[in-house]
Design a protein that fits this description.
about 0% strand, disordered C terminus, about 150 residues
Length: about 150
């Protein structure tokens, strides 16, 4: 396999299997296939969630909406101008990148073995001298600060 970034972009932009690069990744426009028909990779690991939509909103929808506001405030065009100019820009700028972005995120998850985050179990107690636990006092009492925030004398 070539450089991982190069491979991720290659298979992501083509919508191909992240393992073999040959099988189709999608069953529909954005629906992932259950598995690769070439190598049998189960796509159950893939969960790009709202990642593609977020990236599209930040890179396309926000600038295009800013352009629409600028157009409106600068020239006060009739509504049909927004239907002819702004609406197609929003549709093209937001819908077309979704599929390659989703495929790229799925390929990145596969290449980097990304998994859902898990909470760590309870940690072992650290050195007693750091928290004042050796004297039976809580952390605030060990530093001389009482509950009300006043300093002990």
């Amino acid at each position: 396999m070539p450089d991982s970034t190069e491979w991720i972009l290659k298979v992501g932009l083509r919508g191909r299997c992240p393992r073999c690069g040959k099988g189709r990744l999608f069953d529909g426009f954005l629906k992932l296939a259950p598995s690769c028909e070439q190598c049998g990779l189960d796509y159950g690991f893939a969960d790009p969630a709202d990642g593609p939509a977020f990236f599209v909103m930040m890179t396309a929808a926000v600038p295009i909406t800013a352009f629409a506001l600028w157009l409106e405030l600068s020239y006060d065009p009739p509504v049909w101008v927004h239907f002819v100019v702004t609406l197609p820009l929003l549709l093209i700028g937001c819908i077309l990148p979704l599929r390659p972005l989703k495929a790229t995120l799925v390929a990145s998850q596969y290449i980097h073995s990304a998994e859902e985050g898990r909470l760590a179990g309870p940690r072992e107690a650290g050195p007693a001298s750091e928290t004042g636990a050796s004297s039976g006092q809580g952390p605030n009492q060990a530093t001389g600060v009482e509950r009300g925030g006043s300093h002990r004398e």
